[in-house]
Design goal:
By secondary structure, the chain is of the alpha/beta class. It has 11 helices and 10 strands. The two termini are about 35 Å apart. Belongs to the aldo/keto reductase family.
């Protein structure tokens, strides 16, 4: 497995397995199947409601803890929005570790750029200093909020997990993050099939040339850009297919052809939209 080195020296597998939208009752089997395929990087979140199932799969796998890289995320309502500040974030992290059955996290992210995330970041810096979290980062932060957080805090986020796929490539933003030492991580690498991604002629043509699927081409394209990816599937054969992307390489011409697919806008929603801000900011996680 190819690793990337985060800004604090922590090694992170560039390919992982995500469990967003996997129902809790299906998560344990899905994660167990992914670990059997060879995945060692797992990505979950308090908001997904499946941390306990991820933890059960880890426990039953028999894989040594040091061979795994586990990420989870702090939700908005645990960020100190109601005034509890740093204590809320610390309790939320400890709750996630308990659900996962882990004594430490490899990566802990602020899930959304809302609420009192400055208090959250101060708490996460302490969690890192205390050895409970190997690396800390953010998710869904737009450039202005990311740079503001970097400018006014001691620890620079190790990762920013954002929507990144062929139709929303974020190349300029990746260059900005590289400048500040922040690793870009993709959620939604397949855009959930929107805009007919799996039928796209450019991607399918490149796939045919390499005897690979569109999904494999997309993952390879992201990996060659240095983007960490966490594809999701509940089908073992697709998990194995997504894992099998290290035996071919896209040419400069193929990378350039994929670059022409960029539409420069989200296929989902804008985190600066006031309506979305209100909805996400008021969504509770039990």
């Amino acid at each position: 497995m190819q690793n990337v080195t985060l800004n604090n020296g922590v090694k992170m597998p560039i390919l992982g397995f995500g469990v967003y939208q996997v129902p809790p009752e299906a998560t344990e089997q899905a994660v167990s199947d992914a670990l059997a395929v060879g995945y060692r990087h797992l990505d979950t979140a308090a908001a997904y409601g499946n941390e306990i199932a991820v933890g059960r799969a880890i426990a039953s796998s028999g894989i040594p803890r040091e061979e795994l890289f586990v990420t989870t995320k702090l939700w908005v309502q645990d960020s100190g929005l109601r005034g509890a500040g740093e204590d809320n974030a610390r309790r939320a992290c400890e709750t996630s570790m308990h659900r996962l059955g882990l004594e430490y996290l490899d990566l802990y992210l602020i899930h959304q750029p809302y609420g009192d995330y400055y208090s959250s970041w101060r708490a996460m810096q302490e969690l890192h200093r205390d050895g409970l979290v190997e690396a800390i980062g953010v998710s869904n932060f737009m450039p202005d909020r990311l740079v503001d957080l970097i400018t006014n805090n001691e620890i620079v986020p190790a990762v920013n997990q954002i929507e990144t796929h062929p139709f929303y490539q974020r190349a300029d933003y990746q260059r900005l993050m590289d400048k500040h030492g922040v690793r870009i991580q993709s959620w939604g690498p397949f855009a959930e099939g929107r805009n007919n991604l799996f039928g796209n002629e450019v991607l399918s043509g490149i796939g045919t040339a390499h005897e690979k699927s569109v999904a494999q081409v997309v993952l390879r394209w992201l990996i060659q850009r240095g983007v960490v990816v966490i594809p999701k599937s509940v089908h073992p054969e697709r998990m194995a297919e997504n894992f099998d992307v290290f035996d071919f390489e896209l040419s400069e011409d193929e990378m350039a052809r994929i670059a022409t697919l960029d539409q420069g806008v989200s296929q989902f929603f804008d985190h600066r939209d006031p309506g979305m801000t209100k909805r996400l900011g008021s969504s509770r996680v039990d």
